[in-house]
Amino acid sequence: xxxxxxxxxxxxxxxxxxxNRTISLATAILLTFVxxxxxxxxELYETGAPDxxxxxxxxxxxxxxxxxAAANPAGMTLLNRSQLLGASGVLLPxxxxxxxxxxxxxxxxxxxAGVFFPIGSFFYVHKLSERVRLGLAVFSDFGLGGDYGxxxxxxxxITEASLITGKINPSIAxxxxxxxxxxxxxxxxxxxxxxxxxxxxxxxxxxxxxxxLESWDEAFGAKVGILLRPISKLRIGLTxxxxxxxxxxxxxxxxxxxxxxxxxxx
Length: 266
Hints:
With 266 residues, the chain is α+β, with helices and mostly antiparallel strands. The chain has helices spanning 2-12, 15-33, 59-62, 68-71, 259-265; strands spanning 83-91, 117-127, 132-139, 144-147, 160-177, 180-199, 209-231, 234-241, 253-255.
């Protein structure tokens, strides 16, 4: 009997009351989690999912396909059946460097430092019940690479570097009522960081040496999301992604050192 009364109350609730309740809830959430904004590194939304057609605008509230398992897990409740989505693509950034007249180091501009990167992702949402969805996302949301070549004017700082990551993100979503859904998930991610540069042997007839680093590490993270639907034509999505802390450890690899630097190294 109590369940029937609650259902009728939801059905007879006016749109204006839903909007007011939604605004109050969204404001309370924002005030609860308000903090300073900090960031580092690169984040890419080029997972190959269809929301790239909108430059990923509004992806926290779009929930148009299974890729919402990565964007906002709460949006999985809007999918009326189980859904599988695979995506693929490529990245070829354009990064060029202009050598200034005041530059004293020999070398050129390095051309386009953008590196060809294949991308791929996998998303699955399972309809467990009318109110519960399970999701799985396999993708990468940050990383990139650059290669300026061995004769670049800045080769003693860097010639080549890359950060490649991949993560597995299981999640669950629950539809509380017809205007509120919540979701949460955790992720296991793996990252590979590489760096190369040239070493100036400080002697005209001695070619440059080489310096290289490579490291792998893993990290854990979590994401929570809320999807509000106060009226049929309005959706508000809120998400929080926890930091992912990689602790890369390095063992430098040096080659081709001249006699002076070899002596100093010893």
